[in-house]
Structures are given as structure tokens and as C-alpha cells.
Amino acid sequence: MRKIGIIGLGHIGRLLAHTLVITGKADQLVLIDQDDELAVGLKADLENAQTALMSRTIIIIQDYAALRNADILVTAFGDSQLLQEQQMAELSRNGQTIDQIAPRVRQSGFSGIVFNISDPNEAITAYLQQQLALPPKQVIGIGTTIDTMRMRQAVAKGAQVSSQNVSGFVYGQHNGEKVFAWSTVTVNGQNLEKVINGHHLDQNKLRVNADMDNWYTLKGLGYNASAVVTWTLQIISVILGSGNLTVPLAIYQPQYECYVSFPTLINRHGQGNPILLNLYPVEEAAVKTATSAIQQQIAFLQQGGKEND
């Protein structure tokens, strides 16, 4: 039985729940939010939608005990509108949410995989792992996955090829110290120092173009949802299946003794082995800078996270 929990029913949580039901990817879905009426309404809406489906998903709401035998718990709480005030405005709020939910998740006996979407992703994922007392390999975050895909898309547009022909990763910290690791980027196996399809690709311009996609989304919608949910579904499918996928997730990286976005294999056990690529020295230094920023955020949460209240 495929059982998935979602804590936080904002834009992303609701879209994720909707897509899991419509695609029949979950046999049971546990939905939890601080707003009881929202949870009740979403359950009714999803059950109405199932009248048009051949599949059937059992929907349970506001029941932490039901998480006991869940395979995956997705944490999607937060308020993206706070990002318009300050880049790290969600840190304190989401840290306090973890303090509230973690004891109840622990009490439920949940022992599956936690996939965190909440921001700032690396620090919140680290704090979740600490408060849930689960092995680090079982607590991972979406990290710079979407940043990486935006980067690949920008490169693909510049080279006039499909994004499927582009590889490479963004390391570091989503919505913070992102590290565009150009040393890892190739187009049809060629690095960016080559002339590709007759185009000289300017790395600074590529970065600007990738960041502009995020700006357009936040400016127009006020939040990111479709790309986050689509990639979350991809990762859920890998965890519930038997395959492997390489993506830059928020993981505990022993090399830095901290959570940081880093390319890694994922499988049904959660995090597999990190992918160790040779970075340029300046990129390696930038990852360390990102790690330092994440460590400061974790320390802030450990100390109570009350500074911005």
C-alpha cells in the first residue's frame, strides 16, 4: 500500500494532493494543516473529483497517528508571501512550525522518508532531521533541484537545444548562496568553453536568465508550485519504486558536516551516495560559503528562532 502524508496545505500542498489523487499514485493520503476547515474542504473537493476516476485514494485528514505506517511524509508548510519582505523571512516561522509538529510526528511512530519542500530548504530540512530524530538519509529536501532545472533550461535556450541534452548542477543553498557549478555543465557532452551550435555561451548571462524565470514566477503568481510539485512527484515515484535518480537535493553531506544542496542518488531508501564531481576551486569555496550560511541558520533555529518575531 502506497501511503503518503502531507503537512501544510497551501498552494503546493493542495496541488500535490490533487495530483497524487488524479494520477492514482497514492492508495492513502494523510492531509494535515493548522486550518481544520481547509483540510475538511480539501478532502471533500478531492473526494468529489474521484467520482470521475477509475482509481480510489483513501483520504485521511488531521490525524497524526495515521502517519505511523506512511511511506513518505512531505512537509510543505510556510508562507511564500514572506519572501517579498525578506529572502529568509520564512526561517523563524517555519522553525516554530517544526517545534509544533515534530513531537506529534515522533509520537505517531513514523519511520519513513521525509521530503521537505519548506524554505529556507537546507536549514529547515536539517532542523527537521534533528527534531524528528530520524537518520539523515531518510530526511531530504528539494534543495536546488528547481534552480538546477532553470539553469539547464537557460543553457538549452542559449545553445538552441533541448534541455534533455544539458547536464550539470546548482549546488549550495536554494534562495540563498546558490552555486552555479559551471564545471559540471555540458551540452551534448561538451563543456561550456566550447562553441556549441555556433553559440558562445556567456555564464553570467545564463545565470541571469535562470534567475529571471524565478522572478517572473514569483512576480506573476506570488509562489512557485507547478515545477516544485512535478519534481516532487518524480522523486516520490523513485522512492516508491525501485529505480534511481540523480538530483541536487538538500542532504547531509559529511564532507561539510552540514545539510547543503548537493547532487546525490535517491532510491527507495531515501538518499543514496552523493555524486562527487571535481569542482573548480572557486566553486568549492562558494559551496563552503553556502554551508557556513546554512550552519548559521540552523544555529538560529536551535537557539529558539525568536529574533524576527
Architecture overview:
This protein is globular. Helix 3 packs parallel to helix 4 (121-132), helix 4 crosses helix 8 (281-302) and helix 5 (145-159) crosses helix 6. The chain has helices at 11-23, 36-49, 90-108, 121-132, 145-159, 203-221, 226-240, 281-302, and strands spanning 3-7, 28-32, 58-61, 72-75, 113-116, 139-141, 166-172, 178-187, 190-191, 245-253, 258-267, 270-274. The longest helix has 22 residues, at 281-302. Helix content is 42%, strand content 22%. The chain folds into 2 domains: 3-141, Rossmann fold (3-Layer(aba) Sandwich), CATH 3.40.50; 145-302, Lactate dehydrogenase/glycoside hydrolase, family 4, C-terminal (L-2-Hydroxyisocaproate Dehydrogenase, Chain A, domain 2), CATH 3.90.110.10. The protein has a 6-stranded parallel β-sheet with strand order 3-2-1-4-5-6, with helices on both faces. Strands 7-8-9 form a 3-stranded antiparallel β-sheet. It has a 3-stranded antiparallel β-sheet with strand order 10-11-12.
